Amino acid sequence: SNAKPWGGRFTAATHRAVEAFTASIDVDRRLLEVDIRASQAHARMLGACGVLPPEEARTLVEGLAEVRRRLEEGTFRLDPALEDVHMNVEHLLGRVVGPVAGKLHTGRSRNDQVATDMHLYMKEALDRLEAAVRELQQALVEKAEAHLDVIMPGYTHLQRAQPVLFSHHLLAYFWMLERDAGRLADARRRADWCPLGAAALAGTGFPLDREQVARELGFGRIYPNSIDAVSDRDYLLEFLAAASILMMHLSRLCEELVLWSSEEFGFIELDDAYCTGSSIMPQKKNPDVAELIRGKTGRVYGALVGLLTVLKGLPLSYNRDLQEDKAGVFAALDTVEAALPLCAGMIRTMRVRADRMAAALERDFSAATDLADHLVERGVPFREAHRIVGELVLHCIRAGRRLQDLTLDDLRAHSPLFGPEAPGRLSPRAVVEARKLYGGTARQAVERQLAEARAILAAA
Ligand code: ARG
């Protein structure tokens, strides 16, 4: 026979390789706390519904409290031969309260139990993540507010395009993160369904009160279909999709920090606390944290594709494949939870080198659009204005001149259509200040954007 909790219909012991292969305790041990909590709610409900005598239910609830105490004091020794977190908890409960522990699993399966644990765990994780996203948004807002005077080159195709406020550029990330917060909140809404009571797949004949357990555990609603309840991993996919998009944003931010902190750009200097050195080159200060966040983004995408792949061919309802949901979800969660505060720290502590950005803007043609706009204001069709200024730029490149050095006479020598305000349009400040429309880069527009961002953080 077989000593496992399910050993009755077996005659032989489990192969050791099978024990090792099927065990999930190394991964699901972090569910211990929610597993105990969910079991206490289940036991209390069994008592309230009269499925168990009240004193037995109380013994189970109190025994589980003792299990939690041992977990907290570090004397709960997990046994891989017991497969997973659920059977380890039940086993220790048996040592604490005796044979009555065997009644805890009445009307319940590990299939609805593990789903309930994961829902509980993810709700709390998603709350922590949203708070961490808010922290990074706060760091961006504060940095943007502190550097409202700084103008930087704005890029498309990584070619100089038009000057923008550095604050405007930073706040672009605020809005990406705002959408991330929305996606995480949305995933949390789906994690808020309680599967308990679905049992193995079909529900149970015991008169359980699913609403009571759900209420006690803080769930917003219960799954209406027991088969769906034990099979559904959508909320994990939604978390992974939201986490992937969030990491993509962090990766883009980090890519810019890497670029900007290079000697070639020199727009920022990262704080020593967020950099590391070289074992051979004494002069080096490398942006390894930013690089690793960029690099670890791949793992999070991998977890999403991994779980989608696990699920795609599964027949209903529970299949052991579903146990594979946890490793990727937890790895993704840990990665995102580590990356968010590190990004906030890098943003808060980085030195902004306005002088280097200003110097970069000295030698470019990023006022060209505004010169064309000037002609348009004087009645020239935009396409014609575009051509005139394009030729002017080509002339300057050939003559080794800068746009902002051109006098009105120089401009008029090229086209008589230029008016007296034209040279005044050429400074980076003038280009920035021209864009006062909502969402634009002029200081007043960015201040308005900052006010909206601050209001969002105050309400969050
Ligand atoms: N450790 C399992 C999991 O994570 C628990 C459910 C096991 N159920 C079963 N029928 N073997 O999915």
UniProtKB/TrEMBL annotation:
A Gene Ontology term for the protein's cellular component: cytosol
Q: Where is the Fumarate lyase N-terminal domain?
A: 8-302
What family does this belong to?
Belongs to the lyase 1 family. Argininosuccinate lyase subfamily.
Question: Which E.C. number(s) belong to this protein?
Answer: 4.3.2.1
Does the record's keyword annotation contain Oxidoreductase? no
| A molecular function GO annotation | argininosuccinate lyase activity
Cleaved signal peptide residues: none
Protein name, entry field: Argininosuccinate lyase
- Please specify the portion of the entire protein covered by the chain, as first and last position out of its full length: 44 to 503 of 545
The chain positions of domain Argininosuccinate lyase C-terminal read 365-433
- Say yes or no: keyword Cell division present: no
Q: Where found in the cell?
A: Cytoplasm
Give the pathway. Amino-acid biosynthesis; L-arginine biosynthesis; L-arginine from L-ornithine and carbamoyl phosphate: step 3/3
GO terms of biological process kind: L-arginine biosynthetic process via ornithine
Q: Which chain positions lie within coiled-coil regions?
A: 119-149
